[in-house]
Design a protein that fits this description.
Elements (H helix, E strand, L loop, with lengths): L5 E4 L5 H14 L8 H5 L3 H6 L4 E8 L2 E10 L6 E9 L8 H15 L4 E6 L4 H9 L3 E2 L10 E6 L2
Parallel strand pairs: 4-5
Antiparallel strand pairs: 1-2, 2-3, 3-4, 5-7, 6-7
């Protein structure tokens, strides 16, 4: 029987866990993100505590072990759209439901914030991510992504 992953919203006091998971993601999948390990490793404790200023991080756990992270973020001045960013699941937990639990945590948070849809961008060639988001109901929009070869997806919440 597959294990059910737990998810938890992280706070500023969880800054070390945010840092640990984010840096692991950037080492494991550097081409999947718009940042780098070098850039993120240079952040101060205060920056980790405050990030994301207009959003929230969520972590997935396999028992006591953190196995993934995702962030919901709302652009100031555009309260109708939440962005799912920084999504990553460690290799040992992939294909077992952790990603789906993280997506559900972020979309649930977005609903609670009163947004009308969730958007995200998938790097080119990341077919596993595309499948994960399609299972959660996201569809490709056709809008231009920030990264060449990527895709913008959305999930209406209304």
């Amino acid at each position: 029987m597959p294990r059910r992953f737990d998810t938890r919203q992280l706070t500023g006091d969880d800054w070390q866990l945010k840092r640990q998971l984010r840096l692991a993601a950037l080492l494991d999948s550097p081409d999947a993100f718009a940042s780098s390990h070098l850039r993120e490793a240079a952040r101060s404790e205060a920056e980790w505590r405050d990030w994301p200023r207009h959003g929230s991080y969520f972590a997935a756990f396999d028992g006591p072990d953190p196995v993934g992270i995702a962030c919901g973020w709302i652009t100031p001045g555009a309260p109708d759209v939440a962005h799912l960013i920084s999504m990553w699941v460690c290799p040992a937990a992939r294909g077992r439901g952790a990603a789906g639990r993280l997506v559900a945590a972020v979309t649930g948070w977005a609903r609670g914030q009163g947004t009308r849809r969730v958007e995200l961008e998938v790097a080119g060639g990341n077919t596993a991510a595309l499948r994960t988001y399609a299972r959660a109901g996201f569809t490709i929009t056709g809008r231009d992504p920030f990264t060449a070869g990527g895709a913008v997806l959305e999930l209406p919440l209304a």
